[in-house]
């Protein structure tokens, strides 16, 4: 069902983040993500609330690949450890915004593990 356009009842239009590379101001096209309200209601409460009475929802300030990870997780998917570590901070921010507590906890754990503290160098190790 993930990203199944035919049976979806809501479309999220995620605008790519602005990247200053040239002087031209051509706006990149938004990326569409197809979803189902019933699934969102069970796994992403704030996202479900955003699409309560509309079929198209614009999402800003989230990279499309981060939104894809969050939506995939909402459908029962597992984010790879590599993707989680590489994007943990952005996933934390997005999931906090979209009401996805379980994914936020997983991303926080990954973020903490990837930013490990070397207790030997800090002089805090008693072992």
Describe this structure in words.
The chain is mainly alpha-helical. 47% of the residues lie in helices and 11% in strands. The chain has 6 helices and 3 strands, in the order ββααβαααα. It has helices spanning 37-43, 45-50, 64-74, 81-98, 101-114, 119-122; strands spanning 10-14, 31-35, 56-59. A 3-stranded mixed β-sheet has the order 2-1-3. Helix 3 crosses helix 4. The termini are far apart. The relative contact order is 0.15.
Task: List its traits.
single chain; 127 residues; mainly alpha; three-stranded mixed β-sheet; 6 helices; globular
Helix and strand arrangement:
Elements: E1 10-14, E2 31-35, H1 37-43, H2 45-50, E3 56-59, H3 64-74, H4 81-98, H5 101-114, H6 119-122
Parallel strand pairs: 1-3
Antiparallel strand pairs: 1-2
Tell me the overall shape: globular
Count of alpha and pi helical runs: 6
Strand content: 5-15%
Radius of gyration: 18 Å
Give the averaged pLDDT, no decimals: 87
Order the strands across the largest sheet as they lie in space: 2-1-3
N- and C-termini, Cα separation:
51 Å
Approximate helicity band: 40-55%
Q: What structural class do you assign from the helix and strand content? A: mainly alpha
Tell me how many strands there are: 3
Strand and helix order: EEHHEHHHH
Q: Which spans have pLDDT < 50 for at least 5 consecutive residues?
A: none
| Main β-sheet description | 3 strands, mixed
Compact summary:
This protein has 127 residues and is mainly alpha-helical. The protein is 47% helix and 11% strand. It has helices at residues 37-43, 45-50, 64-74, 81-98, 101-114, 119-122; strands at residues 10-14, 31-35, 56-59.
